[in-house]
Amino acid sequence: MDALSEVYKDHPLSLHEITPFDFNSVQLPVPDSHAWPPSSHPVVSPNEQLSSIPVVDLRDHDAVEVIRRGCETWGVFQVVNHGVTQQLVEEVESQTRRLFSLPLRQKMAALRTPGGSTGYGVARITPFFSKLMWHEGFTIIGSSADHAGKLWPDDYLGFCNVMDEYQKRMKILAEELLSLILKSLNIPQGRVNWGDLTGEAEGPTMALQLNSYPTCPDPTQTIGLAPHTDSFLFTILHQSDSDGLQIFKDGVGWVPVDPVPGALVVNIGDLLHIISNGQFPSVLHRAVTNRTMHRVSVAYFYGPPMDFQLSPVVNSSHECPCYRSLKVKEYISIRSKHLDRALSMIRI
Ligand SMILES: O=C(O)CCC(=O)C(=O)O
Ligand SMILES: [Fe+2]
Prior knowledge:
- The chain has a single domain, classed as B-lactam Antibiotic, Isopenicillin N Synthase, Chain (Jelly Rolls).
- Helices cover about 30% and strands about 20% of the residues.
- The longest helix has 28 residues, at about 155-185.
- Strands 1-2-10-7-12-5-4-3 form an eight-stranded mixed beta sheet.
- Helix 3 (about 85-100) crosses helix 6 (about 155-185).
- By secondary structure, it is α+β, with helices and mostly antiparallel strands.
- The structure holds 2-oxoglutaric acid and fe (ii) ion (FE2).
- Fe (ii) ion (FE2) binds near residues 228 and 230.
């Protein structure tokens, strides 16, 4: 059993909290189950021109400084020259589209189990909201062969090979980004060295989340993915070249993260917020829907091993930790029950 399922198994969801909607049959008006109240309609800030989310060129000598600015000011940055080939990114997107274009009954063959963490289903945050999202997802941890074999019994290798290769490349990129992010925080790599600190050979926690936002007859009153922060250290997101991702910035409001050709988006998550002792915000973000384009995105979540003892790193004897020390699995478990209240529950 993968490390995430180990944590989620104590908090199983019921089948109706996992099963996606059949978006193919929808016409106006959108069903009441998916029509969000006016206070939640996805309106963008009139001050969005104030936004200047940094684009980091990993080959530039000032990459660490631009990363620090992005993380501190926005909790997000985009990255180019990241070493992942355009061809691989396009293959992942095309396999993702292939999966979500299947009829619902076929996708249901790979439905996530109530206590499980991988396979087809709605977003894990669904039970925390009274309305449903215009979204379906597919989660991969390690090999995707079991689920892909149920979707395409005679033809699943193409999908699996691409997802394996992408996860391999993402891990390399994530390790490089982690090292730059720690530099930008003046944290010596040794302070958060999973191998040394756990004394175990357990690797980082990683998951690949394929997201699909079918075309929607009324994007003004629907939400693709409701506002949330990501739980791990950071997320590397391919959002294809269709906009839809928005972040919330205090004093500005909701700001679109405009797609930059060839760039990947990096979102800071809760665990890095904790390690940075609050210096880097874990960014609140959401995805909005589109009337004419079926948008897909591919999110790679990266975090320490589940048994890693997490603590804020303080740089001087005058600074006090804002959060108590706890194991990653304890934090993920608190979050699976309390979502956005989790951080305040571990605040000192
Ligand atoms: O689709 C997007 O742009 C955002 C996806 C996301 O936030 C997630 O998978 O956690
Ligand atoms: Fe997210």
